[in-house]
TrEMBL record, chains A, B:
This is Aspartate--tRNA(Asp/Asn) ligase. ATP binds at R207, A208, E209, R215, H216, L217, E352, G400, L401, E402, R403. It comes from Promicromonospora umidemergens. It comes from the Bacteria. Residues 186-189 are annotated as: Aspartate.
Length: 429, 429
């Protein structure tokens, strides 16, 4: 019995040779004298021609089958090759009719239907390609960091205190005691900078989001980076630039981008950077606005494209008042009263994609920052131990995987690119 | 100002050149006329010689510093090179004395002390190297699978039903409704086989383990693999073999193995395999034993080494009664009454390391298996939908990262190789 041939390798198989394929019946089309069976495997589609004279019994769509047959050139077939004189053997019972039509070029069912039937709907080649963009992004993210001295870390998702932001945490019954699901690996990745200097983590983060919007999920994948011995947030931004270049390269090389017809953005050699105060002025917002509204982000995206030919623009200097306690004030600020920070948001095509910046690194600064927010530094004792015992100037960022993929493929709703989304209403499948 | 030089690159720096180093004061040793400063960065240690005549002020250990000085050959120094005529600039306030002595060759503090002070204790080069073994293992795992047609997936950790085993799940308050933390990605990775054929995931899994032992954690990292179109569990075992070969290669290439003096095992071209019934006979256990006791596993490990020169041995055919409902019975079993399964445990040096096997793939078999355990198939409706709509014969396995690393570095307790372990008693740091 010949070894398995993948659909994607068929165009290079010698015509006349006998091959063995395995996959799903993607489409079965019975004509008067011939049945076309389109077989789907992980690499693509293959056309199988079942003529009269041999058994025309082709199992229903989505049944898994093995097909042994002859490689035959046919310029009309996908890849210029089809399988003739096949023997079709089912690998399991006949499949029931799928809840969504997977053989049509586009998935046209409504989002709730797709989500309810995720295990089947994700088999559609266009939907599958969206996750391939995600998987390629993960590969590019790690490859860039592995090549530049970063160490992957794994930090706990069960935590004892609802720190960092306090709100929106999920409570867990931890052997009868309260625990919480980590909203981010922030406090742990910083501690690991003390060990490895440069760390990254890909993992789930949990937000008990009461916002029922297209851009919020209760569980998502965070691509976290943190690095020591930086001068300021601009060094962090340079790493972010390289990471996004690695991610876009991997997406471009994956094949999924082509199949989806994506315009994968060019990552410039350096991101255009604008200060928050200048950004407000540029978009005509009042100088005392504490944040950028969606229309401001859109206008900045248009400005970046018009002025710099860039899909990306970094806004630096966000007001300290809107940033977490560990945020480093703007270099040169008066002690204790900084208005601006050494932090940034990166906008991609006019939408916020990444938040990052420099963090505090002196123990005394942490104590002051935590007390200034009316909290007790003792709550953070084990985290602060890292700073009492020597930490370098450092900073980092976090990229939301689903948000990145949604922007890249032009999906309006994060749920369209998340295999099993979790939100206020949805905990299944 | 010269760009930063890493300690590991010093041996190749031209003698007489001026370099800039950054790192931690690993050790400060004040002699009568000279102070030795050993600087630690992510790549290793560098010796800095501070002589009388220049400032002898060296900050205390663990303070982060920048050192600018001259590269000078000295056969007695680590790497044959030291830094002379240095300028030492602290990058932060003087560090407090660490709770464990990081400059000693070995960390001698008791485990609870190390765990309580994890952020600092992990800075010790020997401890840090243990995690580098973990990080290298992750790289090798992914590289092997990326090269053989696998797709990385991310499956939800918040789930709606306490399925699979029922016991030992953590309950979460999910917007006022009950939810649970996933004990494994098993049911989701199988569904994704229907989409991508071959999938893997690295992620946290959660077990509300009431066992307070050296080999149980409440949260650990599971390296999950699942693949379709297998003949039986032997195809799964062949992939596991390649994955472990990739992991050991990556560990060998990481440098950490050498620094720790590890004997990284040779992965044989194929694992020796013994049937569960034969294993019982070999170790002299009664033929009706449903499981292997630790002393049986040890004996099998010795047998594998003596007979096959292998650190690994696979035991196949585990009794169906001890395996989860989705387990495929042994090929050729009588319908409905199989005693043995197409599943395996892989033992590494006489300890169970990996569990895996072939899964059921027919919808009707799932319904029967679930009902036979007294459960209602409706509980599993969304999972079973994948099987109603066509799934291939498939199987997979899961490797516990911490367990793998502990075995490799010879740590008796998983907590020794887990940066922030979670168990019955420990939820911090």
């Amino acid at each position: 019995m010949p070894v398995r041939t993948l659909a994607g390798d068929l165009p290079t198989a010698p015509p006349g040779s006998v091959v063995r394929l395995q996959g799903w019946v993607h489409r079965r089309r019975e004509l008067a004298t011939v049945t076309f069976l389109v077989l789907r495997d992980r690499t693509g589609l293959a056309q199988v021609v079942v003529r009269s004279g041999v058994s025309r019994q082709v199992p229903p769509e989505e049944t898994t089958v093995e097909v042994t047959g002859t490689v035959t050139a046919n310029p009309q077939a996908p890849g210029g090759v089809e399988i003739t004189e096949p023997a079709v053997t089912p690998l399991t019972d006949a499949a029931e009719t799928p809840p969504v039509e997977l053989w049509r070029p586009a998935l046209t069912a409504a989002l709730p239907t797709l989500l309810d039937h995720a295990a089947v709907a994700w088999r559609h080649p266009a939907q599958k390609a969206r996750w391939e963009v995600a998987a390629a992004s993960l590969r590019g993210f790690r490859a860039t960091l592995d090549a530049t001295g970063f160490t992957e870390v794994c930090t706990p998702k069960l935590v004892g205190t609802a720190t960092e932001s306090g709100a929106n945490v999920f409570a867990v019954d931890y052997f009868g005691r309260p625990a919480y699901l980590a909203q981010s690996p922030q406090l742990y990745k910083q501690q690991m900078v003390g060990v490895f200097e440069r760390v990254y983590e890909v993992g789930p983060v949990f937000r008990a989001e009461l916002h029922d919007t297209v851009r919020h999920l209760a569980e998502y994948r965070s691509l976290d980076v943190e690095l020591g011995f930086v001068r300021d947030h601009r060094d962090v931004l340079a790493v972010l630039r390289d990471v996004l270049a690695g991610m876009t390269d991997a997406v471009r090389g994956s094949g999924a981008a082509e199949r989806l017809g994506l315009e994968v953005p060019e990552v410039p050699a350096a991101f255009p950077v604008i200060h928050f105060a200048d950004a407000l002025a540029l978009v005509g917002a009042p100088a005392d606005e504490p944040d950028l509204a969606p229309e401001h982000e859109r206008a900045l995206g248009e400005w970046a494209m018009a002025e710099h030919g860039s899909d990306f623009v970094a806004v630096e200097g966000y007001p300290m008042a809107k940033r977490p306690f560990y945020t480093h004030p703007e270099t040169g600020s008066a002690p204790g009263g900084a208005r601006w920070s050494n932090s940034f948001d990166l906008l991609f095509r006019g939408l916020e994609l990444v938040t990052g910046g420099q963090r505090l690194h002196r123990y005394a600064d942490y104590v002051a920052a935590i007390e200034a927010r009316g909290e007790d530094p003792a709550t953070y004792a084990s985290y602060l131990a890292a700073f009492r015992h020597g930490m370098p100037p450092h900073g980092g960022f976090a990229i939301g995987l689903e948000r990145w993929v949604a922007r890249l493929v032009g999906a309006a709703n994060l749920r369209e690119v998340t295999p099993f989304p979790r939100d206020l209403h949805r905990l299944a499948p």
